[in-house]
Amino acid sequence: MNFNSIRSPEQSLPSARFKPGRLLWAFVVFFLPLFISLGVWQLNRAVQKEQLLAERNSPVLVGDAINWQALPLYRDIQFTGNAAAALPFLLDNKTHNGQFGYEVFQLYRHDASVLVVSLGWVAGSADRTQLPVIEVPTTLTQQPLTLRPEPVNPLFDVDTNPPPSAPSGVWIVQGLTADWISRVTGYNVLGFAQLHNSDVFGVGPVVWQPTVMSPARHRGYALQWFTMAIALLGMFLYAGFKR
Question: What is the pTM of this model?
């Protein structure tokens, strides 16, 4: 009997080798960090939304309690000031309940600077040559405002803004930023704010909201991204050892 022909069970089993292939390596190297980074981003957004909600629930800032050098976004304030410009800015392509219109912005003085206040929404006409006639308030007296970011237009920027339309008494713009307003008006811009009770001045409803998605929903999306990353890693290991 040839004892050399008898092998132990360990010798008869093939050794496991991890060979997923180049294509699978490239797929995982690209998508695994992407899924993880998206999950981390959603967690960071959840923390930011919690901070915003905490700011929203903070007491209203009045007078000297407002730090105009570092405006806390989404805080509610009471503001008093006079209009600093004869022409309001009408931000184009703003819709409300499916109807075309404009968001009305006006500058109001605070010492030597101005606060850009959104007064609400007004309806537009199908004939773009017919512009709305607006009588903006010349004075705000202890009016409740919410400090907000600059309005963002994903399609146009301030470089597409035309010259003011003086005969109509309005200035149609495609975008608004603090730097652009400073250049065209010469005022130092403190920031942007949203008027709460815009209907008092005959301007339409508010079309801006401070927050849309809750922190819990952001965490739910983060969990989905992390789950996809774990599933991708598991399939990668399974396919590599199976081959």
Answer: 0.69
Q: What pLDDT shows up at residue 222?
A: 94
User: Which residues neighbour 136 within 8 Å (Cβ) at sequence distance 6 or greater?
Assistant: 83, 88, 104, 106, 119, 201, 203
**Bridge pairing between strands 76-82 and 139-148:** antiparallel
Ranges of H-type helices in the chain = 9-12, 22-56, 178-185, 215-242
Over residues 193-213, the mean pLDDT reads 76
Q: State the Cα–Cα distance between residues 59 and 144, nearest whole angstrom.
A: 12
State the DSSP code for 126: S
Q: Which two tokens stand for residue 151?
A: 């309005």
Residue with tokens 């981390």: 40
Please give the Cα distance from 196 to 188 (Å, whole number): 24
For the chain, the maximum distance between any two Cα atoms, rounded to a whole number of angstroms, is: 113
> What CA–CA distances, in Å, run from 30 to 26, 27, 212, 230, 242?
6, 5, 31, 14, 22
**With contact defined as beta carbons under 8 Å apart, do 35 and 232 qualify?**
yes
Dihedral of CA atoms 121, 143, 63, 178 in degrees, nearest 10, equals 10
Average pLDDT, the chain: 81
Separation of first and last alpha carbons in the chain: 37
- Tell me the β-bridge partners of 116: 107, 192
